[in-house]
Amino acid sequence: MSRAGMRKSDILGMGLMVFAFFLGAGNLIFPPWAGQQAGENLWLALIGFLATDVGLSLLAIIAIAMVGSPESLTRDIPGVLAPLFWIAVYIIIGPAFAVPRTSIVAYEVGVLPWISQSSSLYLALYSLLFFSVALCLCINPGKLVNIVGKVLAPVLAAVLAALYMAMLLQAPAEFGEGVGQWKEHAMLEGAVQGYLTMDTLGALAFGIVIVAAVRRYGVSDHRLVVRHAIQAALIAGAGLSLVYLGLFYLGGMSQGLVTDATHGGQILAYMVTHLLGPMGKVALSLVITLACLTTAVGVTTSCGDYFHHRWPRISYRFWVSILCLASMVVANIGLETLLKLSIPVVITLYPVAIMVVVAGILRNWITLSRGSMQAALLVIILFSSIDGLNAVGFLKGIEMTDHIPLFDNGLGWLLPGLSVLVFGWLIRSVAELKKRGNVES
C-alpha cells in the first residue's frame, strides 16, 4: 500500500470527510449574508470569498502536508510565541468561537423555526444534546472517515442539491445595488467575509488530521502523502465552491424578501422555507444539523489531538470532554453576541496564519530568511491589530488610518506585510548573487 498509494474510493472518502468538516456554521451563514449585501456585485464578492476561504484553506492543508507538522510551519515565530500562536488558533477554532457557533446555528436555523418561542432553557438543552453526540463521535476518531466522509457528507450534499434545484426552477433573480462598502468594494468585502468563516485556521488543524489519516492507510512515502492530501483538499474545495455559489445566489435573491436580517442564518431559514414550503424546514434542519455536527466533531478532534500531544500525560478523552463542555457553555451566549466577539479576534490573528501558510509553500521555490519573515510577521500583527480595533469601532475619527491602503476594507495589513517580505527576499537574493560572484571570481 505504501508504494501504490491509496485507492480512488479511499481518496474520495477522504475528500468528502474534509468537505464535511469544513461545511459548518460559518460556511452556511456568511455566504447568504454576503450575497444579499453585494446585490448585483455578488459575483465579485464571491471571487473574494473563494480566495480567502477555499483558496487559503487548500493552501493551508498543502503547507501542513509539505512541512509535516505545525511546529515546522511556524518556525519563524520566535521563542515561546510559536506555541502560543498554535494554542490561540486551537482555542479560537475550538471552544472560544467556531465550535460553539456550530451548536448555536444548528439551534437557531434548524430548530427554532419549529418551536413557537425560544428560551435560554431550550438553547441549553439543545447544546447539551448536541455536544453529547459530538463527544461520542470524537471519542472514536478512527471511524471519522467512514461516518463523516462516506455517510454524512453524501446525505448533506444530496439535501443541498435539492435546495438548489428548487432555487434554479425559479425565475432568474434581479439583483439590486450593493449596500455600503459592498457597492464599490464587493470583492474586498467578500474576502473579509471569507476570513470570518475561520476556515484557514481550521485547515491548519484539519491538515494534521488528513496527513494522519493518509498514513493510517499505510502510505509512508512523503511525496505520496502530500499528493493524497492535495487530492483530498481539491475534492473538498470543489464541493465547497459549489455550495458557496448556490448560497451567494440565494442571498442575492433575498434582497427584496428579507429586509431586516441581522445575519445569514435568518436569510437562509426564510429563503429555504420560501422556496420549498413546509418541506423546506425539514430539509434545512437536516442540512444545518449534519453540517454543524460534522464540523464540531472535526474541529474538536483536531484540538484534542493537539493538546494531547502537547501535554501527553493528559489523555485525549479528557481533552475532548473538556473541549465539548467548554463549547457547550460558550454556546449559550447566543449567535449575534458570539459573532460580534469573534470579529476583532479573527481579523487580528488571521493574517498571521495566512503569512505562515504562504511562506511554508513559497520556501519550496525561493529562499526566505528567518529575519525577513520575522520582520514581516511583526508588521502584519501590528497592522492587523489596528484592523481588529477598527472592527469594533475603537479607531473612529482617527485621521492617521486614512493613509493605510485597504484599511476601510479590513485589509490594512496586506500591503505593508507583503512589502516587507518582498524587500527581505530581494535583499537575500542580491546578497546570494554577490556571494556567488565573489566565489566564481
TrEMBL record:
Localization of this protein:
Cell inner membrane; Cell membrane
Question: Superkingdom of this entry's organism?
Answer: Bacteria
Q: What is its main location?
A: membrane
InterPro entries in the record: Brnchd-chn_aa_trnsp_Livcs (IPR004685)
The alphabetical list of record keywords is: Amino-acid transport, Cell membrane, Membrane, Transmembrane, Transmembrane helix, Transport
Its placement in the membrane is given as: Multi-pass membrane protein
Entry keyword Nucleotide-binding? no
Q: Does the keyword Lipid metabolism apply?
A: no
The protein's matches in Pfam families, at most eight in alphabetical order, are given as: Branch_AA_trans
Membrane-traversing stretches? 12-30, 42-68, 80-99, 119-139, 151-172, 192-214, 226-250, 282-304, 316-335, 341-363, 375-398, 410-427
State what this protein does: Component of the transport system for branched-chain amino acids.
Sequence similarity: Belongs to the branched chain amino acid transporter family.
Mind telling me what this protein is named?
Answer: Branched-chain amino acid transport system carrier protein
> What organism does the record attribute this protein to?
Parendozoicomonas callyspongiae
